[in-house]
Specification:
By secondary structure, the chain is α/β, with parallel strands linked by helices. The chain has helices at 51-54, 68-76, 88-96, 107-117, 144-159, 161-172; strands at residues 15-16, 31-33, 39-42, 60-64, 81-85, 102-105, 121-123, 135-137. 32% of the residues lie in helices and 15% in strands. The strands form two sheets. The chain has a five-stranded mixed β-sheet with strand order 5-4-6-3-7, with helices on both faces. The longest helix is centred in the C-terminal third of the chain and has 16 residues, at 144-159. The radius of gyration is 17 Å and the shape is globular.
């Protein structure tokens, strides 16, 4: 297991509410909250229903290097050819150029890429996986603030508010929420 020190990233901040944590190295060196699902944009002809379908030596997957998705793929589809790129754009470009059979990103850039490319299929491989993302709190001896933040985020998730905010975000970027996988695992496969 890799351990990265995030202290320099937020030395003066108690709370970060940025999606950028997905592209930073995520470990126990700091706490991260959130429940975005692991998604892939796969070639239309690539049969993918489960993570096991991607865990094959012939499957090429592009991913932003040192991201939470990179960590997940490394641990769960180690037989696949995982190509790491400096960022989302480069990973998407590899998929577009045919150098990757699938690209693994978090929701927004993956959905935007699918819309722009007009090809590929968005898949939430089973079992659906949650990845740490979006909110981080500096690690401190006193856990009361972290516990409060975790509890409040849990309330937003349980009430469906995070899904509502996500759908508003999609509309703001010109994406159709009904054509996008939900950010709540409990909503997968429901109309």
């Amino acid at each position: 297991m890799h351990v990265w020190n995030f202290a320099p990233v937020w030395a003066n901040a108690d709370l970060l509410a940025l999606g950028l944590l997905n592209t930073l190295k995520v470990t126990g060196a700091a706490l991260a909250f959130g429940v975005p699902l692991g998604l892939v944009l796969a070639r239309d002809d690539l049969p993918v229903k489960a993570w096991a379908d991607l865990d094959k030596p012939a499957v090429r997957i592009a991913v932003p290097q040192a991201s939470s998705m990179d960590k997940f793929l490394t641990e769960n589809v180690a037989k696949a050819q995982i190509s790491r790129f400096p960022g989302n754009a480069e990973a998407i470009a590899a998929f577009q150029a045919g150098r990757a059979d699938a690209v693994c990103l978090f929701h927004p850039p993956l959905l935007a890429a699918r819309q722009k490319l007009g090809a590929g299929k968005i898949v939430v491989p089973t079992p659906a996986q949650s990845q740490a993302s979006s909110v981080a709190v500096r690690k401190e001896a006193d856990k009361s603030w972290v516990e409060w933040v975790d509890k409040e985020i849990g309330k937003f998730y349980a009430s469906g508010q995070t899904q509502k905010w996500y759908e508003e975000f999609l509309v703001g970027f010109g994406l159709d929420p009904t054509a996008s996988p939900p950010v709540m695992k409990e909503m997968l496969g429901k109309s």
